[in-house]
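User: Show me an example of a complex going from sequences to structure tokens.

Assistant: Sure. Here are the input components:
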Amino acid sequence: MSYHFAIVGTRDNPLFDLDFGTSKLGGDGLSHFKPEAAHMNQFILHASLDMVEEVQWANKDLYLKKIDSYQNNSIHCFLTATNVKFLLLMNPDPSATPYSQHTPGTTTSPPPRAAANAKHSATLLAANPSSPQTEEAVRVFMGEVYESYVKCTLNPFYRANQIITSPIFRSRVQAAAKKYL
Amino acid sequence: MPAATDDNTYGVQPPGLDFKDSNTIPLPPPKHFQPSLRYPSSRKTIYDRNLSRPSSTTSLASFAYIFNTIITYHHAKSGSVSEIETRLNRAGYPIGIKMLDLLLYRQSGKAVRPIRLLELLQFIHGALWRGLFGRAADALEQSTSKKNEYMIVDNEPVVNTYISIPREMSQLNCAAFVAGIIEGVCDAAAFGTEGVTAHWAEGDEMWPGKTIFLLKFQEKVIERDEAIKASVG
Amino acid sequence: MATATTSKASRMGEEIWKTRVDKISAEVLTLTYGTLVAQLCRDLTLPNTASQTDYLAVNAELDRMGYAIGLRLIEDFLAKSQNTGHCSNFREVAEVISKVGFKMFLNVVPEVRGWQGPPAGEEGAGGPVAFSLVLEENPLAEFVELPDDGRAQDELWYSNVLCGVLRGALEMVQMQVEARFTSDVLRGHESTEMRVTLVRYLQDELPADDD
């Protein structure tokens, strides 16, 4: 199961992104996205920003839960007070995601793997993206990232919408991911 | 490092480069920013500090000295009163953005984003003022003549203590700095303003330093607020 | 060790802090100072560049601003701490600065260390007299991380205004000192430390203003 996490600024500009996988249930913590997922993930996340804008004026909470899905990816969003979006894309089985319709010659491999992993992945969070446990886990994860984010923005040298480059911030996000996802 | 040529003509190789597949010119790998800050090995970094610990206090005099320094600095660089006020406004702006996130983070489980204009105004009047100055602002009013103008009144702005304005600049109100903070908060919360300014409130004998902060919201913000009201109500 | 002076100074500092000082949230001070430094870093750039900060010029400007503050701050200090009396030697000066001065204005008490020079009571016996102030917590630099441009950490002393303040304040009480930072946690060092060196006592009444 793989995740792609991104922070998008107020002008829809990316400030931070991170790929990782689950460490639970024996996962290795690395993401297993297909190579084409690299740009597709960003595309999916940015497309979901429209959904964020629709939802944000009806919902007062900071955590907006699952706002969008694409094939078997689901996207959860956390909106900070200053309109900066934390977007988490989760995918229970990246190999089973047919991004484009013309998958060149590898159609035979996904089904057997999917069958073998079905029981395994059913217990993973991403298989039930709307379940309360999932939402709760993601919400707590987002809360920790928010804490690190606020600390980063309090720096007088950090200007709004600047890319976050601190390696400590990155390791904090990774640690939170390992703990909750 | 191979560079993508501007006229990306197929099959033409840039001189001096050797590709097996002449149809594609690979882009250079993105140069990732290499962070190079040193951190103390034993001391903690900013990410270890606790955001929610009870905020410590410091002396008002220290703030006044630093604020005075800022005013003097900007005064030396500009001429007119309105230019100084604009500079102070710009100086306070990023502080507003930081305060908004900090205050909402500190509300932790009960944090809600202001969605309606009134919620935002109450947030500024209450939470923001308390976070900055330890007390709520004194009044919140809506202009009777223009529906996109609101006023927040402070009888004795903390930032103006220890500041005496020379007579030739009597129009200058250094609370323009606080106006900048307010503007930062509004813009960051997606309630764009056309400007937030600080004015002396004339004629109040009990509070000679009374200041009115005038918030002018953009048309589209008012329209959006009306639309939400219509859809909910 | 001047323990009697130390505890008297500590008690005085605490008492003044509790009763005679108007207070404000420390975050406002941190954010305001941060704005000042960030503004200077934007305005003071290297010659012929528009975006590369001249950190050495920023240091100098912060020191100059601190000096102007110090000239006025000393009066405030003397007014509030009327019981101090005259400090008889430089050691007492150090104690009063750290336990009363810093406490009154920043609500922190730096540690006085690293004495160098003639022992107490023998002022003017030749050789520089100097001490270090070690700041365990620096309220001016909370949540600050220097810009990651390869130069800031080597060139900028973020809290340099404090050096200017000490220099200006002590000059008004007839002491010419040099104050400079020797280490800063923002630069990756283990502690934040300022070195204060007495250059000479000013015997003549020099005019106070510095323009």
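The lines above are the inputs; the final block is the predicted structure for all three components together. The interface with chain B takes residues 17, 21-29, 31-33, 35-36, 38-39, 65, 68-69, 72-73, 76, 104-107, 139, 142-146, 148, 150, 153, 161, 185, 187-191 of chain C (CB under 8 Å).
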